[in-house]
Amino acid sequence: EKGGFRTYMDKEIHDQPQAVAETLLGRTDAAGRLQLDELRIDESVLRAVDKIVVVACGTAAYAGHVAKYAVEHWCRIPVEVELAHEFRYRDPVVNEKTLVVAITQSGETMDTLMAVRHAQEQGAKVLSIVNTHGSTIPRESDAVLYTHAGPEIAVASTKAFLAQITATYLLGLYLAQVRGNKFPDEIAEELADLRAMPGKIQTVLDRGDHVRVIARWMNSDSVLFLGRHVGYPVALEGALKLKELAYIHAEGFAAGELKHGPIALVEPGQPVFVIVPSPRGRDSLHSKVISNIQEIRARGARTLVIAEDGDEDVKPYADEVFWVPEAPTLLSPLLSVVPLQIFACELATARGLDVDQPRNLAKSVTVE
Ligand code: M6R
Question: What residues make up the catalytic site (predicted)?
Answer without folding.
Answer: 363
